[in-house]
Amino acid sequence: MTKLLIKNGTVIDPAGKNGGGRDILIENGKISKIGRVQASGARVIDAKGLLVMPGLIDMHTHLRDPGQPEKETIASGSRAAALGGYTTICCMANTTPPLDDPALIAYVVGKAEKEAVVNVLPIAAVTRGLKGEEIAEMGRCVAAGAVAFSDDGQTIGRSDVMRRAIEYAKQFNKPIIAHCEDTNLSKGGAMNESRLSTEIGLPGIPALAEELIVARDLLLAKKYGRVHIAHVSSAGAVKLVRQAKKDGAPVTCETAPHYFSLTEEAVREYDANAKVNPPLRTEKDRKEIIRGLKDGTIDAIATDHAPHTIEEKKVEFSLAANGLIGLETALALALTKLLPEGLTLKEIVKLMSAAPADILGLTGKGRLAIGADADLIVVDQKAAWIVDPDKFASISRNTPFAGARLKGKVLHTIVSGRLVVKDGKLVN
Amino acid sequence: MNKVKGLKNKDLLGLKDLSVEELQLILKTAVSMKEVISRPIPKVPTLLGKHLVTLFYEPSTRTRTSFNMAAKVLSANITNVALSSSSISKGESLIDTAKNLEVMGVDAIIIRHNMAGAAHLLARQTRACVINAGDGCDEHPTQGLLDIFTMIDKKKTVKGKKVVIVGDIAHSRVAKSNIWGLNKLGANVVVVGPPTLMPDGIEELGVKVSYDLDRELRDADFVNMLRIQRERMDKGFFPSIGEYAKLYGLNAGRLKNARPDLVIMHPGPINRGIEMTSEVADGPNTVILEQVTNGVAVRTALLFLLLSGNN
């Protein structure tokens, strides 16, 4: 394999020290040298004035494979990821059929080896058929390559099943990723329940629908073992996690870029591209999410990239599918929205790389150190661009950020030492 | 009739979007239209050659008939399309339906739909004028207009008047359109009903919330009784129809403490014995049938304003 030398970049390593003008040498898919490097015969990437950071890790992606290639495939989703600066994505189990069986985990791993341009790590279902009744073969799924367990899209309603799953998963040292939603409170709802839902007449979903199950799962975690709370969207949920961490519960959580970038106001004109579950909430919630990102309550930013066809979105709001795509906008949103809020570059990079790597136990990823995997990206922090969904590599277009002006562009993406995005374009 | 200064938008989606001037223009025009309708031959050629379609995904008698009468007063052609709301979930696309109607040369689509925002979705997809005849729990603007028209007809103005709206506020597009319109015109609106049927943040729309109908009736100028749907009870919003009627129904005893000139309204159809007793429904303070008559006048005015000016 050829040697690659990234010269003169401003290195942002969430685990180490930052500094301008450092070179990184990549050999055999690993980082071999950092500092002032002279390497003959290496392909050189000039990163002067640019940021060099670990490749981003998305611990919450829906790739729709198997089952819904009209929305996304492993090939298309991984290309969207590469363009967005992600070198590793973890795909959720709510496919058709769901990833509740070691053969299906092996299918994803095998297909990713053939078709993906970034690392694709499957997340196995917690329960068979995502039904919330019997736990799936977690051990065999781990052996086949699963990095975590989740029935995402569904809450495990039965507390006894959730308890057993948390206990059983302990032996594999992998987290249960919890989708928290009391469906008795949320059913029929299409947006956050608030003054605005009253105003525009859409059926509401109270924040409590999320918070009640967050509270339950935090209590279960304290007693029985690790839980990672997915897509935290409400102020109340942030506060619950903050308190649980103080109490020593083995919990982590993530939020998604739309929860720190948007509020429910995005659905005022019935824009179904802003329909997502949990729903976009109020400014008070958005502020608390940002506070949680700053004080470490929220460990990670994950996209919850949820591709849907135009046909499923261009309908009456109440009928539209939940979810929005995020791989190609997440980093720019984080830089655009969070730097002005006082988060540092290093904190943002940690939330999007080192933290998910730690939660999932991905050794060698999420850091720029000698011997680490050569998954890294080069970013022009100052470049402004307009979000144009027609230019996405994702098959789907469902983003509420179309037309938004964002700052921060991924120029190069390197996966295991291979350049997969160069100058903002996919290589071959 | 001369061309009047029209409304700002091509559509009427809700009273929320109207300015005070536009509201007053519609109400004023409705006065002349009421006169037209009362003529021996209630017909003017204003909208001759225009094609209207009613596109109803929910059943309706009054509203659809009222729009049909209004269209005929103005000599417009009108076609009624009825779709069951179950066909929506079978993949019947609202947008496709709209595009088909548009290429047939339809000038206006009057839509009723069980989901909020359906009229807005349609309006964005077509050059035709879209009139919202009720979208989910959002708005029913022509009902709001005819209610306000009736109030002004009875008491000259709504400014400074106390209007009590009673019942299922959370699921009522009639309540919403009343609130938007009445607030713009300076009325004091009080909503009364069980707390389970009060939507989040309703006070912030500029109304007072109360659970005590007797107290609110004492100094009310108008009371607008909303139709209660049995399915709300089935979904656990209140325990029984009997208890609902006891707490929030109008009866002769309850009216004893109200002002003698209290005007009692209902968008229909009434559940006699629930929202009000027959004695009240057929009593001297009740204007339910006048509301229906005024509905034709208001809708005629609206069609005139939306369709006669723009070519």
Automatic annotation (TrEMBL), chain A:
Question: Which family does the UniProt entry place this protein in?
Answer: Belongs to the metallo-dependent hydrolases superfamily. DHOase family. Class I DHOase subfamily.
Q: What PROSITE patterns does the database record attribute to this sequence?
A: DIHYDROOROTASE_2
- Annotated positions binding Zn(2+) 1: H60, H62, D152, D304
Note the InterPro entries from the entry: Amidohydro-rel, DHOase, DHOase/Allantoinase_Hydrolase, Dihydroorotase_CS, Metal-dep_hydrolase_composite, Metal_Hydrolase
Record-listed E.C. numbers: 3.5.2.3
The name this protein carries in UniProt is Dihydroorotase
Keywords associated with the record: Hydrolase, Metal-binding, Pyrimidine biosynthesis, Zinc
Q: Its encoding gene is what?
A: pyrC
| Function description | Catalyzes the reversible cyclization of carbamoyl aspartate to dihydroorotate.
Keyword Hydrolase assigned to the entry: answer is yes
- UniProt GO BP: 'de novo' UMP biosynthetic process; purine nucleobase catabolic process
| Gene Ontology terms, MF aspect | allantoinase activity; dihydroorotase activity; zinc ion binding
Q: Which SUPFAM superfamilies match?
A: Composite domain of metallo-dependent hydrolases (SSF51338), Metallo-dependent hydrolases (SSF51556)
Q: Which cofactor does it need?
A: Zn(2+)
So which domain of life are we looking at?
A: Bacteria
Domain named Amidohydrolase-related is located at 51-420
Q: Does the keyword Metal-binding apply?
A: yes
Q: Where does Zn(2+) 2 bind?
A: D152, H179, H231
* Residues annotated as binding substrate: H62, L63, R64, N94, N277, H308
The protein's annotated catalytic reaction(s) are: (S)-dihydroorotate + H2O = N-carbamoyl-L-aspartate + H(+)
Q: How is the cofactor bound?
A: Binds 2 Zn(2+) ions per subunit.
List residues traversing the bilayer. Answer: none
Q: In which pathway does it act?
A: Pyrimidine metabolism; UMP biosynthesis via de novo pathway; (S)-dihydroorotate from bicarbonate: step 3/3
UniProtKB/TrEMBL annotation, chain B:
Q: Which UniProt keywords apply?
A: Pyrimidine biosynthesis, Transferase
Q: Which GO terms describe its molecular function?
A: amino acid binding; aspartate carbamoyltransferase activity
Q: What InterPro entries does the record tag this protein with?
A: Asp/Orn_carbamoyltranf_P-bd, Asp/Orn_carbamoylTrfase, Asp/Orn_carbamoylTrfase_sf, Asp_carbamoyltransf, Asp_carbamoyltransf_Asp/Orn-bd
Listed Pfam families = OTCace, OTCace_N
Q: Name one GO biological process term.
A: 'de novo' UMP biosynthetic process
Pathway, per UniProt? Pyrimidine metabolism; UMP biosynthesis via de novo pathway; (S)-dihydroorotate from bicarbonate: step 2/3
Task: Give me the gene this protein comes from.
Answer: pyrB
> Which residues of the sequence carry a binding annotation for L-aspartate?
K90, R173, R227
Q: Which residues form the Aspartate/ornithine carbamoyltransferase carbamoyl-P binding domain?
A: 10-151
User: Where is the Aspartate/ornithine carbamoyltransferase Asp/Orn-binding domain positioned along the sequence?
Assistant: 159-305
Enumerate the catalysed reactions: carbamoyl phosphate + L-aspartate = N-carbamoyl-L-aspartate + phosphate + H(+)
What protein does this entry describe?
A: Aspartate carbamoyltransferase
Cellular compartments per GO CC: cytosol
Subunit structure as annotated in this protein's UniProt entry: Heterododecamer (2C3:3R2) of six catalytic PyrB chains organized as two trimers (C3), and six regulatory PyrI chains organized as three dimers (R2).
Q: What is its EC number?
A: 2.1.3.2
Q: Which family does it belong to?
A: Belongs to the aspartate/ornithine carbamoyltransferase superfamily. ATCase family.
Role, per record:
Catalyzes the condensation of carbamoyl phosphate and aspartate to form carbamoyl aspartate and inorganic phosphate, the committed step in the de novo pyrimidine nucleotide biosynthesis pathway.
The family database entries (Gene3D superfamilies) matched by this protein are listed as: Aspartate/ornithine carbamoyltransferase
Name the NCBIfam families for this protein: asp_carb_tr, PRK00856.1
Q: Kindly indicate whether the keyword Oxidoreductase belongs to this entry.
A: no
Q: Does the keyword Transferase apply?
A: yes
Origin species, per record, is candidate division WOR-1 bacterium RIFOXYC12_FULL_54_18
Q: Where does carbamoyl phosphate bind?
A: R62, T63, R112, H140, Q143, G268, P269
